[in-house]
Write a structure and sequence with these properties.
The chain has about 130 residues and is an alpha/beta fold. The protein has helices at about 15-25, 35-45, 65-75, 90-95, 110-120; strands spanning about 5-10, 30-35, 50-55, 80-85, 100-105. The protein is globular and about 35 Å long.
C-alpha cells in the first residue's frame, strides 16, 4: 500500500463528492475534493496525487478530457472515471486506449475494490478482526 495516498475526487455535485469521500475514507489516505476540472488541474501543478476519481459530467471539461490531461501531465497517476448508467462510447475507448485505468458505473459499489487494487492495498487492513 502507498503510505498516505493522496486521492483527488472531482465531481460538480457537492453531495456526490462527499459520498465518494465517505466511501473511500481510510486513515492512510488524504483527499482533495474539487467541483470542476480546472481546479483539479491547478492543484496537479502543486502536487502529484496517487489517484484521481472523476465524474464523467463536469461543468468545464468532461471527465474523459480531464483524465486525458492528467495522463499527459502525470502519466503514473492512477485514474478512475465514474459515470452514470449510460456511459458514452468515448469513455469505453478511453479505457481501451489506457487514458483511464478504470471505469466505474453508478451506483459505485465496485469503487472500493477498484481503488484498493489500483493503490495496491492489502485486504488485511480492511477486514474485521475476530476477538
Amino acid at each position: 500500500m502507498l503510505e498516505n495516498a493522496v486521492i483527488y475526487i472531482v465531481d460538480e455535485r457537492p453531495l456526490s463528492r462527499h459520498a465518494l469521500w465517505m466511501r473511500l475514507m481510510h486513515p492512510k489516505r488524504s483527499f482533495r475534493l474539487f467541483g470542476d476540472a480546472r481546479s483539479a488541474l491547478a492543484a496537479l501543478e502543486r502536487e502529484t496525487p496517487s489517484l484521481i476519481v472523476a465524474d464523467l459530467d463536469l461543468p468545464d471539461l468532461d471527465g474523459v478530457a480531464l483524465l486525458a490531461e492528467v495522463r499527459r501531465r502525470r502519466p503514473r497517476v492512477r485514474t478512475v472515471l465514474v459515470s452514470g448508467t449510460e456511459t458514452p462510447i468515448g469513455a469505453h475507448h478511453a479505457l481501451q486506449d489506457r487514458i483511464i485505468d478504470e471505469l466505474v458505473p453508478r451506483p459505485v459499489e465496485a469503487l472500493d475494490y477498484v481503488v484498493r487494487r489500483l493503490l495496491r492495498e492489502g485486504w488485511e487492513e480492511w477486514l474485521p478482526v475476530a476477538v
